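User: quick one, sequence for these tokens?
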């Protein structure tokens, strides 16, 4: 299986308040943390935490479709990650 890709969907614009990316909801610290995760289990858990964060923050409905497209390009089943 291919390595689980970053939740980043290549928007990378940060809001001043809170510092969350408008594309994926990650902060700069979270982006760095994800890059340091080596095991797919840890990466999948991070993505699940991120989706919970997106639900709490709202306005991230576009992310799921964009990330599923990224997963399909890497031939990774969305059920294994989301």
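Assistant:
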């Amino acid at each position: 299986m291919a390595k689980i890709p970053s939740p980043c969907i290549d928007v990378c614009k940060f809001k001043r308040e809170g510092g969350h990316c408008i594309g994926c909801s990650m902060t700069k610290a979270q982006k760095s943390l994800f890059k340091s995760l080596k095991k797919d289990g840890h990466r999948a858990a991070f993505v699940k935490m991120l989706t919970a964060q997106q639900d709490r923050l709202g306005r991230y409905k576009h992310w799921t479709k964009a990330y599923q497209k990224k997963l399909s390009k890497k031939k990774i089943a969305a059920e294994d990650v989301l």
